[in-house]
Design goal:
By secondary structure, the protein is of the alpha/beta class. It folds into 3 domains: 2-154 and 218-286, ABC transporter transmembrane region fold, CATH 1.20.1560; 303-384 and 466-476 and 496-562, P-loop containing nucleotide triphosphate hydrolases (Rossmann fold), CATH 3.40.50.300; 391-463, Rossmann fold, CATH 3.40.50. 64% of the residues lie in helices and 10% in strands. The chain has 21 helices and 10 strands. The strands form 2 sheets. Strands 6-7-8-3-9-10 form a 6-stranded mixed sheet, sandwiched between helices. The protein has a 4-stranded antiparallel sheet with strand order 2-1-4-5, covered by helices on one side. A hairpin with a 2-residue loop joins strand 4 (363-368) and strand 5. The model is unreliable at 1-7 (pLDDT under 50). Magnesium ion binds next to helix 11.
Length: 562
């Protein structure tokens, strides 16, 4: 409102000074009015700086807070959710869509609200100058509001297309880079490039459509009409002697104020439309119910380590007609070691994912210490179950930080102690910066065996009551093999350990062995029992026990089982 007054003051002075000039008043008066105009504009400038600056602060805070909330919500989503969302698409939302919200606030809303004054002021000032003069701005305003309404309605779906195609393009970049080895291996660079180009074209075409709409911006035409119409009317009134020349000039000055809102709204309304589309995309993600709740009121406490699966059924997707696991029953006593044997795709890893609720069983129950995992406090459950996956993920941080990942307050001594137990200390200290060496993304600078030992060290630091080692496909040279073997023996001591392995020595040595085939348990028991009762298991050992590496290949398991 203050600004409005300043503008009106400006108008008044403007008008008075022209009339003064016209009436042949002295230079003094004109200089006085001139100075007053400068002063009023100075005040306006100062207020405008404040407005723009606070609008920018507001926009930056919105961007920060929305991104923070989106990130937190992404971390809380289940793996089922993440399985279905391309990473690049999510990235586009976290980075660019949130950025659009910033632009929607500033310059978007800032300009719309700021220029709003320029729409209202001419209306009142025209009336003040001479009542009939209100007609052109009044007609203009009504037409302007109607035209803007339809413009926004037409622009919003186009802006949505722009955002969606951008997300798709991002997802494609991410997927191609992630699978670059496959792309190169199959010499499919050209194909991928062409595919990417169609996505690029889509983004370009949608954006051009948006700009095309902006270019056909009707308010520009309205502006031309109101200025020329208003001028004609005021000249008519002047000729009839109803207004003087000062009024005529002040009036055309007032009408030209419409220029700012009209020109700025060309961009600000696009900001609004894009921001709106982005906000929808962000909310879509945040609002998707995550089917896995944190269960904060659930059971907490130290896990002893007894695991029981009872009639467990599980499929990755609801519409799956061949579920990944079917009628799984087994029980592991606390502190024991279980080996899970079966060929690739038989469901070994899936079993382990049901224990710490990466996924939830569709039917049947998974119990730890006699309590359904769904009744455990999720945080308490997960912090006590350590899983070392086939594909060991290392963050691009230092080795020490990677080891202390599950226990951020672990001291350096604890880290070194854990690394020693994991047989990793030796190779870590041989690296140029020792524990401070930063590993590349996905641990590319380390070998498979080294990564595995780092993962074991991670587990030693958190000292979990339940340890899962998903190890079946790792191809490791025999020198490291021994070290890893040793580390695993140490790791299995004093905790329930699930080993997914093809190593005969480990299988034989396990307290309990589960033989899986296509999601079914075909046999279970200890080595001696299985040798006696299970022909499939007997075949595995009879045929391959004398193999020099004592490690089965997937093919061998398959042949033996069939
Ligand atoms: P294993 O560890 O024995 O090699 P998995 O437990 O990884 O087998 O897989 C069991 C089955 O579930 C396979 O048919 C596999 O294709 C399928 N599967 C595994 N992970 C997923 C996933 N994230 N989404 C859909 N299907 C999956
Ligand atoms: Mg697996």
């Amino acid at each position: 409102m203050r600004q409005c007054r300043a503008c009106r003051g400006g108008l008044f002075l403007h008008w008075r000074s022209f009339n003064a000039l016209n009436a042949g008043e002295g230079l003094d008066a004109i200089i006085r009015f001139g100075l007053a105009i400068i002063a009023s504009q100075g005040i306006r400038a100062a207020l405008q700086i404040m407005r723009n600056f606070s609008a920018e602060i507001f926009a930056q805070r919105i961007e920060r807070d929305v991104r923070d909330e989106l990130y937190a919500s992404l971390l809380g989503k289940s793996m089922t959710f993440h399985d279905l969302q391309p990473v690049g698409e999510i990235m586009a939302r976290v980075t660019n869509d949130v950025r659009e919200l910033n632009f929607m606030m500033n310059p978007g809303f800032n300009l719309i609200i700021g220029s709003g004054m320029f729409l209202i002021v001419p209306l009142f000032s025209s009336f003040a100058l001479y009542p009939t003069l209100i007609l052109p701005p009044a007609i203009f305003l009504v037409a302007y509001v109607i035209v803007q309404y339809f413009y926004l309605r037409k622009l919003t779906p186009v802006a949505e297309d722009v955002r969606v195609s951008f997300g798709k393009m991002n997802a494609d970049v991410e997927e191609t880079l992630e699978g670059l080895q496959v792309v190169k291996g199959a010499a499919q660079e050209d194909f991928e490039e062409r595919h990417f180009e169609t996505l690029l074209d889509e983004v370009r075409n949608n954006t051009i459509r948006q700009y095309d709409m902006e270019a056909r911006y009707l308010p520009l035409l309205l502006l031309g009409l109101v200025i020329s119409g208003g001028f004609a009317l005021s000249v008519l009134l002047y000729l009839r002697g109803e207004i003087n020349i000062g009024t005529l000039i002040a009036y055309s000055g007032q009408l030209s104020l419409f220029g700012f809102p009209v020109f700025s709204s060309m961009w600000s309304f696009s900001n609004l439309a894009l921001g709106y589309a982005s906000a929808k995309r962000i909310l879509n993600i945040i609002n998707i119910e995550t089917d896995l709740d944190q269960n904060v009121t659930g059971h907490t406490g130290k896990i002893q380590g007894r695991i029981r699966f009872e009639h467990v059924e599980f499929g990755y997707h609801a519409e799956d007609n061949t579920p990944a696991l079917h009628d799984i029953n087994f029980e592991v006593y606390a502190g024991k070691t279980v080996a899970i044997v079966g060929q690739t795709g038989s469901g070994k890893s899936t079993i382990t994912k049901l224990i710490n609720r990466i996924y939830d069983a569709d039917e049947g129950t998974v119990e730890i210490d006699g309590i359904n995992v769904k009744d455990w406090n999720l945080q308490s459950l997960r912090s006590q179950v350590s899983v070392i996956e086939q594909d060991i993920y290392l963050f691009s941080r230092s080795i020490a930080e990677n080891i202390r990942f599950g226990k951020p307050d672990a001291t350096m001594d604890e880290i070194i102690e854990a690394a020693k137990k994991a047989q990793a200390h030796e190779f870590i200290t041989s690296l140029s910066e020792g524990y401070e060496t930063v590993v590349g993304q996905r641990g590319v600078t380390l070998s498979g065996g080294q990564r595995q030992r780092l993962a074991l060290a991670r587990a030693f630091v958190t000292d979990p009551p339940i340890l899962v080692l998903d190890d079946s496909t790792s191809a490791i040279d025999s020198a490291t093999e021994d070290k890893i073997q040793k580390a695993i023996w140490t790791a299995a001591e004093g905790r329930t350990t699930l080993l997914i392995t093809h190593r005969l020595s480990q299988i034989r040595w396990a307290d309990h062995i589960i033989v899986l085939r296509q999601g079914h348990v075909v046999a279970q028991g200890n080595h001696d029992q299985l040798m006696e009762n299970s022909p499939a298991y007997r075949r595995i050992f009879a045929r391959y026990d004398d193999s020099p590496r004592k490690q089965l290949t997937d093919e061998q398991v398959k042949v033996a089982q069939n």
